[in-house]
Amino acid sequence: MEVMTGTGGVTFPIGWKASGAFAGIKASAEDVALVYSETRASLGGVFTTNAVQAAPVSWCKDLVQRGVAHAVVINSGCANACTGSEGIAANARVAEDTAHALQLEPEDVAVCSTGTIGKKLPVEKIAAALPHAVQSLSQEGGIAAARAIMTTDTTPKEACARMDIDGEEVRIGGMAKGAGMIAPNLATMLAFLTTDANVPHDALQTCLRQAVEQSFNRIIVDGDMSTNDTVLLMANGESGVCLDVNHPAWESFCEGVCAVASELARLIVKDGEGATRFITVTAKGAADAKDALAVVRAIANSLLCKTAWFGGDPNWGRIVCAAGYSGAQVDPDRIDISFDELTAVRAGQSVAAFEDLEAIVSRPAFEIVVDMHIGEAEETVYTCDCSYDYVRINAEYMT
What is the DSSP annotation of 214-277? Predict the structure, then answer.
């Protein structure tokens, strides 16, 4: 299996086209994306667990129950969340307008939105942009679509993979947006995965849930969960390769989906709002997987840890503190902590010089490993530091 970044994205698999268009929701950038397959595709989806959910989330949930779709239309600059019945009607109107432009039925069109909560969706602006979005659909349009879904992102996020199954090449592609409100459970972002394999809905849904758990549910920027989190996986069958859970290559296919999702997830963290450092946090030797995950999430969510990392301060006491309040089984006299290649703490006591640790924490990327020495479980999450720019970005009202 070969995994690539920024090489085609959602249009890398056979039979997929995409585009980006300017509707004027945002001041000066493409803000409507369209992803389309002429062949009806099976559809899987995973969504935010926030009790407050945007109108497009409800719409897409219904489509996932049907299990098929032809297209996805996404707008940035407005979340269409907390907009009541007007927002539901606006979402339906976007689906209808997109379906009309593509000669489809509204139930064939998934709708996603991202941006500021509480703003009314400018339906007329989106309707005016749709003809250009449809006319611009192409196999080279993945990057334009990836740009159009950006909000506070500084760069588009694309990834893809290919593998050989039954003597044929199967391709998987994806794009994502997200830089803030990232503490997934599902996820605080939008992500769209495509494949040219032929996969039935139930199997596709199983594969996607597994991939999301190991990718988007393992990233943290700021501990906030959005109202619009959506990950969709669509399979149009254009490669001619049929897969299900009983196929000998099923696990390999799912590994490919997970690899693309994981690459997109890491790109989100690297582009975290105001982020200057990319940190991998691993807990091992925990009593069980639940404890290991609790430890790494507590550390990755800690503002004290994140601000220390921004300052290049290897304050391991904050790491031990976060592990202690995580709810996991912890024995402070057993804990070892390392920063990349250097052991900082052994059996709960400092064993490294501050200057040596400081040099590591000043790197743009480093790994922290916390060994609990209690059991065998291990989990990893990806996070970033918290800088002055994070505050500046989030102190401003997004337009």
Answer: HTGGGEESSS---S--EEEEEE--TT--B--TTSTTHHHHHHHHHHHHHHHHHHHHHT-TT---
For the chain, which domains are there? Answer: 2-270 (3.60.70.12), 278-394 (3.10.20.340)
Determine the Cα–Cα distance for residues 257 and 271; give it in Å rounded to an integer: 21
Q: Could you give the C-alpha distances from 257 to 41, 42, 149, 170, 199, in angstroms and in order?
A: 16, 15, 21, 11, 12
Peptide bond into 186 cis (omega under 30): yes
State which amino acid sits at residue 155.
T
What amino acid positions are annotated as catalytic residues? Answer: 188
- Dig out the tokens for 5 from the structure: 């970044």
pLDDT tens per residue, range 264-282: 999 999 988 888 999 999 9
Is residue 168 classed as helix, strand or coil in its secondary structure?
Answer: strand
pLDDT in tens, 360-382: 999 999 999 999 999 999 999 99
